[in-house]
Design brief:
single chain, 363 residues, alpha/beta, seven-stranded mixed beta barrel, 19 strands, 31% strand, Carbamoyl phosphate synthase small chain
Amino acid sequence: MKRQLILEDGSVFVGYGFGSDKEMMGEVVFNTGMTGYQEILSDPSYCSQIVTLTYPLIGNYGINRDDFESIEPTVNGLIVKEYCEFPSNFRCQYPLDTFLKDKDIPGLADIDTRKLTRKIREHGVLKGRLCGMEVVVEEVVADLKKADWPRDQVRQVSTKRSYPAPGRGHRVVLVDFGMKHGILRELTQRDCDVIVVPYDTSAEKILRLSPDGIMLSNGPGDPKEITEGIEMIKGVLGKIPLFGICLGHQLVALACGADTDKLKFGHRGSNHPVKNLETNRVEMTSQNHGYTVTMDSVKGTDLTVTHVALNDGTVEGLKHNKYPAFTVQYHPEASPGPEDPNYLFDQFMELMDEGKRMAGIEM
């Protein structure tokens, strides 16, 4: 059945629908990864967004039970050049189309995704709607122009209650701003005793859990709107070793007096080169963010830039000059993507070891 994508600038892309036939509006973004569509669709950081995949053929290895990054996806739509109806892979359990129907996510295929991506790169992210052919384009465009960007994505995707992932090693409080399961997997693989808590958990409640370290997860939306998280970070900084990833990185920057800004079209893909300024090495990274810490705003704070993106020079990593805290803008847990920066989880473990030694606790 023919369906269309209508953008707020009046552009129309007509193709064929798959997945759900539900009408959905969202921020239209693109991801340049060649694999990993299952992880992308289940990444909570894509909440309320319509994702365009630049790789031309999607769905050829199907969907399996092991590669989900969340239980319930919150993406608003998927756009591809061509999707595969009959996947072939030994891990495949069902096709992409079945998954999208089951989760009520609309898909659009057979459009010029290269043209759409170039438009986003030129003009920046745009609001769009996936809909049927019966709508009046001018009315949809007017609605899109009036529509506000969603402002409660973190509340939507964060856990509502605390829960444990037991282990016998370091106790880590993982603050869920829209956590990918890959982060939890890396901590449990290191035998951490993890307690996952909601995004609005106070510093007092976290400190009462007696953690050896605090992990701040990734998540969707504008970091400046997560005031609860910023205040919490101010309350724990300097008391407990801290590691922030993606949105967690941005929140630490804001808590320390730096600033953030929205990127024109964001960084979304699995092959972004980042330079580690401390080792002078280049790492290939997996990224998914629409906001960035502004470089000039770091000056005058107690933060030092440790990593920069080679594509555009933006801030990709920070460390605190006085307290045991560091952050990265990219995803060291990958899923999908390269695992070059996986050592950062070990660095976090060493930071917690050092914290225990300073406190005189035997390990």
